[in-house]
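sanity check this chain:
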Amino acid sequence: MHKFVFSILVFLSLAACQSTPGQGEFYVYTDAQGNLVTIEKPQEQKPVEPAGTAESVSPGEPLEDYRPSEEIDQELEEKERDRFITYVDESGQLVSRPVDMVAEREALSSVEPDYAEVSGGEFLETYRTIRQDCCWHLLDEAEELAVGAEMLITFDQDSPVMLGDQPLKAKALKLAEDVSTLDLKAFIRKQDYVAAQLLWLDEEGRPLLLIDQPFSRKYPETWYRYGYLQGTLPRESGQRHLVVFLPYLQEQPSTDGLQAVLKGELLLSAQ
C-alpha cells in the first residue's frame, strides 16, 4: 500500500516537471476501473480581434473627417462652375465649352418676362343683351372638360351659333366638378387671331357672367412657335357650363394692330 501511494506521488512530481508554462496543466485521477488516468487541460485562448477593427471613439473626441456645411456648399458651387456642355455648331464641328450653372440660374432669375401685359385701358367696356335661352340648344353637344385636360376649339363656317339678335358663332363646354381654373390661349398667325368672349352658365344653362376680355398676356412669335394671347380665369361657385363665342360677324381690327377673324383656334385647358 505504501508503495502504491509512493508511486502516485512520484508520478505527480514528474507530471508537474513536464508541464511547461504556457502549454496548459495536467490532471491525474483514478477511473471507475481503478486505472490511473492523466489528461491535459486545454490552454485558454484569448479572442483574436479581426484585422482592421476600428478603435472605439468616445463621443467627446472630434471626427477627423468632419467638414462644416459652409465648406461643402462652397465645393458644390465650384463643381457647378466647372461643368461643360458639348454640342455641334453650325459648321458641323463638335464644340465643348464650360458652363457656369450658378451664373445661368442668376441670369434666369433676373431675366425680364417674355410677354407683354395686355392693359385693360386698351379695351372699351361693352354691354351685350343675351337671351336666357341663348345656349340651351348648344348644351346637348357640349363636351366635358376634366382637370388636366386640354381642348382645341375651332371656329369655321360650320360652327353653331347662339340664339339672339345676331347669329354669333359659339362652342359650349361642360366642366367637371373639380375644375377650379381655366387657361385660354388664342394663337396669333401673322396678325390674325380669334378674339373670343366667354359666357358662364349655371346648371340649367342660364347666363351668369359675361367675360368681355379673357386675355391678360401677349407672347411674341419665336422660331419654334406662333405668338399667342393668354388668360387665366378662376371658376366660381355655380358656374357649370362655359360658352366660348365670337362677338362679331365679320373680320375687324382689334388692339395692337391685330385682326379679329372668324376662323381660327383656341386652346382651353383646365386645372
About this structure: The first strand starts at residue 25 and ends at 30. The mean pLDDT is 77.
